[in-house]
Amino acid sequence: TVSGPRAEPIVLSEPQRTELERLIAAHSTPQQLVVRCRIILLYAQGLNLSQVAEELAIWRKTVRHWVRRWLSSQDDSPIAERLADAERSGGPGTFSPEQIVAIIAIGCELVEGEDGCSGTRTQQEVATEAIKREIVPSISPHSVGRFFKRCRPQAA
Questions:
Q1: Cα-flanking dihedrals φ and ψ of residue 120, to 5°?
Q2: Please, are residues 83 and 66 in contact by the beta-carbon 8 Å criterion?
Q3: Tens of pLDDT, residues 52-107
Q4: Which of 83, 87, 134, 156 has its CA 20 to 30 A from that of 49?
Q5: What is the Cα–Cα distance from 135 to 128, expressed in whole angstroms?
Q6: Which residue has the higher pLDDT, 6 or 142?
Q7: How would you write the chain as a 3-class SS string?
Q8: How far apart are CA 120 and CA 135, in angstroms?
């Protein structure tokens, strides 16, 4: 048996245990939530952090995080809410998905070069054209480059 530090135990009520098992069995439950439910059930059965991590093939730090979250949340709050992701810091994105697609489309357009050959636009040209077409009020060439980097196929 693997020994390890044991935090405060989790004592589940029968309705909590039933709901955790129901969430695990439901085909519509997101897999992240299923893993979190399993963490709580295994820990409540008496396994320590290391044993739960080994059983589920996940990091011990992940187990500790969700055990702490469970213990610090209100007993009467819904289980799915207790095991949901926390709000993330930071503001909303600057550009909508529609704007990003339109900007990428501009970059994919061929332009007639001075020598009569067709070429592609530079990041600066794409940024200038996106503003001119009123897709966005402003954008930097750096942002344009980030959009193209995201949509470029990754080497295997």
A1: -105, 165
A2: yes
A3: 999 999 999 999 999 999 999 888 889 988 999 887 777 777 888 899 999 999 98
A4: 87
A5: 10
A6: 142
A7: CCCCCCCCCCCCCHHHHHHHHHHHHCCCCCHHHHHHHHHHHHHHCCCCHHHHHHHHCCCHHHHHHHHHHHHHCCCCCCHHHHCCCCCCCCCCCCCCHHHHHHHHHHHHCEEECCCCCEEECCHHHHHHHHHHCCCCCCCCHHHHHHHHHHHCCCCC
A8: 19
Residue in this structure with the two tokens 């589940």, named with its chain if needed: 12
Residue whose tokens read 């897709």: 135
For residue 1, the model assigns a pLDDT of 47
Q: How many CB atoms lie within 10 A of CB 74?
A: 8
Dmax (CA) of the chain: 77
Task: Output Rg (C-alpha) for the chain, integer angstroms.
Answer: 25
Apex 12 CA angle, 73 and 67, nearest 5: 45
| Mean pLDDT value across the chain | 87
Predicted confidence at residue 153, as pLDDT, reads 60
Which has the closest alpha carbon to 95: 120, 131, 67? Answer: 131
